[in-house]
Design a protein that fits this description.
CATH superfamily of the largest domain: ATP-grasp fold, B domain
Number of helices: 15
Number of domains: 3
Bound molecules: adenosine-5'-diphosphate
Strand content: 25-35%
Number of strands: 20
CATH architecture of the largest domain: 2-Layer Sandwich
Structural class: alpha+beta
Helix content: 25-40%
CATH class of the largest domain: Alpha Beta
Largest sheet: 8 strands, antiparallel
Strand order of the largest sheet: 13-12-9-10-11-14-19-17
CATH topology of the largest domain: D-amino Acid Aminotransferase, Chain A, domain 1
Distance between the termini: 52 Å
Length: about 450
Amino acid sequence: MFKKILIANRGEIALRIISACRELDIKTVAIYSEADRDALHVRYADEDVCVGPYPSAASYLNISAIVSAAEITEADAIHPGYGFLSENAYFAEILQDCHISLIGPSPEAMRKMGDKSLARRTVAAAGVPTVPGSPGPLESVDDALSFARKAGYPVILKASSGGGGRGMRIARDERELSGAYETARAEAEKAFGSSEVYLEKYLDAPRHIEFQIFGDLHGNIQHLGERECSIQRRHQKLIEEAPSPVLTPELRREMGAAAIAAAKAVHYTNAGTIEFLLDAQDRFYFMEMNTRLQVEHPVTEEVTGLDIVKEQITVAAGQPLSFAGKELAPRGHAIEFRVNAEDPVTFAPSPGKMTAFHPPAGIGVRVDTAAYQGYVIPPHYDSLIAKLIVNGRDRAEAISRARRALDFFVIEGIKTSIPMHRKILDDPDFVDGRLSTRFMERFAAAS
Ligand code: ADP
């Protein structure tokens, strides 16, 4: 087992990883930027190293500073969390060369799945259904027009190296597609360093259903059930739940088998997520794979009882899956709400000092956060300040707990997404589980 793990991240996920290490009796090293001197992850870790000034490129993405920090502190493994370097295959290779274990998949698997267009090809070859569209990157605007004609409008242009809900453009007809093609390429080049784009049919109001999968170094690959993440704004998730209100055991079995086939296609190890879109006719399509721990992993933990982060660590250390050969059927229902520091009207980030912070507690309520009263949220990083996770024996009980927990959640000094979540919980479509990725458009227009 590892003796000391360096956490190459910040915020709530850094604390989440420190918690898992504590329980496994593993020492921890926090890294931080100059803007994060007062952050809780720095206080809770056994050791800490400042890796640079506030811009992420100079600190949380600074590979040489992070590897040096691991070497100086004699950490034998690094957990990258989500975001930052978590899906960077080059970083994974450097760690291999330095004989530091990465708590995550192999660089090869990361590379194959990190290129979204290549990932589509790879899983399609393994028999997994993908959204109709271009089999590979687009060569020209004529190429785009010809695939769009086959798939049918509307279509969506996506950056092969895109992520985080960015790098996508919808085109409703030939004129829009001709106009969007070069812009999408230029945007992709600027944001992700590669102008490569591909095309998919843009499905009308699908559900986003993803499967948590786990592979060990002994060839076991299993899934831990699904999460429904259809409540999104600008292609970014706001609310996630497990199980999905619409998956029958048969569909779960079918999609679960496809998720495992996709993961097996790259000999996947450690925790990963296969994202699908599900249409109104129960047809599902692979969209992409995230080769890391997800923000929304807690809802799966709540319904399976498994500690996903501890499992990531033991699997990276060479142990077999603790649930190998067993089916983990979901028990009860869990929902996660992303509490962001943002203006509820404009959605602009709302950094600043939290003059009051009192998270809810009690039965069925979990709050993953690194915030505290008096904490000043730096403006440089993402706006997630807490994740509220509720569970109940069924979805209705989880919803009633969520209402109560959001009512009792006190944050003062900054604006947050709590009032928006509270309103969503009274929406009849949400309550009845009539969800789709277009939910927020309708909801925003109505409120
Ligand atoms: P990212 O890697 O940036 O997260 P994804 O490819 O996972 O991007 O897509 C994010 C979201 O965008 C999806 O959850 C869905 O809401 C929407 N989306 C992506 N592709 C399609 C599509 N072909 N049809 C309809 N919606 C889509």
